[in-house]
Design goal:
CATH topology: TIM Barrel
Number of helices: 11
Mean pLDDT: 97
CATH architecture: Alpha-Beta Barrel
Number of domains: 1
Strand content: 15-25%
Structural class: alpha/beta
InterPro entries: AKR2_Oxidoreductase (IPR053135), NAD(P)_OxRdtase_dom_sf (IPR036812), NADP_OxRdtase_dom (IPR023210)
Protein name: General stress protein 69
Keywords: Oxidoreductase
Distance between the termini: 32 Å
GO molecular function, one term: oxidoreductase activity
CATH superfamily: NADP-dependent oxidoreductase domain
Number of strands: 14
Strand order of the largest sheet: 3-4-5-8-9-12-13-14
Largest sheet: 8 strands, parallel, barrel
EC number: 1.1.1.-
Length: 331
């Protein structure tokens, strides 16, 4: 696995990281997520399942692991796995996030699975919880889904608390979501506390269907921020699981390029993200060892101009892309 420095002065990390959104809770919006949990949805069964995927990730050279307070028990699973396997803070880089509260109570049919809360009280509470669980392993602490609408980038108390955490040794980042990712990132790049730039890294959605944040991510990388790509598989829409009749023509294009390059649709999509010159880490959201093995094949794919030219017409307007994402069912 190739490695890279996360930003100009961050830790050395693997080009592919593992996000735990689909491993820490029984319900998620990825297509076919229910089929990945054949071993059961009890806490104990899911912890065993998560450990299996984490074992494979470590053995395969994955050295960036990404969690969040709202990912059910992901931080707990990760913390116990790190301890049981003797994985030290110098062996992997761990990122987590604050800003959403998990509310599903381990139910897939919950009315609401998570609630956004970018308040100072929630930051203080969740940062304590994350640090208590992950200890010295926690390196990067991120605002979860920062948006212009949430006002989090205009809250001096929250920004001051993040600056305090930074002074104590945490790197501070933000993740983005929604059709205005680029505008949010533009604002974030200008945030300074006591004359010091606050953010060390940004995590954003970029994939073959939603490329709108690309120029802003390139600018962020040019000024030294680490760039982490999430949802490179569009929550399963860029995998063989997408059997939506409305996506049939697009799937033929993707299959054609995947066949030409001797790979799968998911590895092709991840390879496209890895090929972006501003991308440091591309997250796999694998919910099974089988998926992770397929995703890791992206490192051997030679993304080229022919693939980019053939697939470029599949790009969706940001508003349409995020509208579709919002309708994906928890399963």
């Amino acid at each position: 696995m190739d490695t890279v420095t996360l930003g100009d002065s961050g830790p050395v990390v693997s080009r592919i990281g593992l996000g735990l959104a689909a491993l820490g809770r029984p319900g998620y919006i990825n297509l076919g997520h229910a089929a990945d949990l054949r071993g059961g949805r009890t806490v104990e069964a899911m912890e065993r399942h998560a450990s299996e995927v984490l074992d494979l990730a470590l053995a395969s050279g994955v050295r960036y692991l990404d969690a969040a307070r709202s990912y059910g028990r992901a931080e707990e699973f990760l913390a116990r796995w790190l301890e049981s396997r003797g994985v030290g803070p110098s062996d992997v880089t761990v990122g987590s996030k604050w800003g959403y509260v998990y509310t599903a109570r381990w139910r897939v049919d919950a009315d609401r699975h998570e609630v956004k809360d970018h308040s100072l009280d929630n930051l203080r509470r969740q940062s304590r919880e994350s640090r208590d669980l992950l200890g010295g392993h926690l390196d990067l602490y991120q605002i979860h889904s920062a948006t212009l609408e949430s006002g989090v980038l205009d809250d001096p108390e929250v920004l001051g608390e993040l600056a305090r955490l930074k002074a104590e040794g945490l790197r501070i980042g933000l993740s983005l979501s929604g059709p205005r990712q680029a505008e949010t990132l533009d604002k974030a790049m200008g945030v300074r506390v006591d004359g010091v730039r606050l953010f060390d890294a940004v995590q954003a959605t970029w994939n073959l269907l939603e490329r709108s944040a690309g120029p802003a991510l390139a600018e962020a990388r040019s000024i030294g921020l680490g760039v982490i790509v999430k949802e490179a598989l569009a929550n399963g829409r860029l995998t063989a699981r997408n059997d939506d009749p409305a996506f049939a023509d697009a799937r033929l294009v993707l299959e054609g390029q995947a066949d030409r390059l001797g790979t799968s649709i998911d590895a092709l999509a991840l390879a496209a993200a890895l090929a972006q010159p501003w991308a440091d880490v591309v997250l796999s959201g694998a919910a099974s060892a089988e998926q992770l093995r397929s995703n890791l094949a992206a490192t051997a794919v030679s993304w080229d101009e022919q693939a980019d030219g053939a697939i470029a017409p599949l790009v969706e307007p940001p508003e349409a892309y995020w509208s579709t994402r919002s309708r994906l069912p928890w399963n």
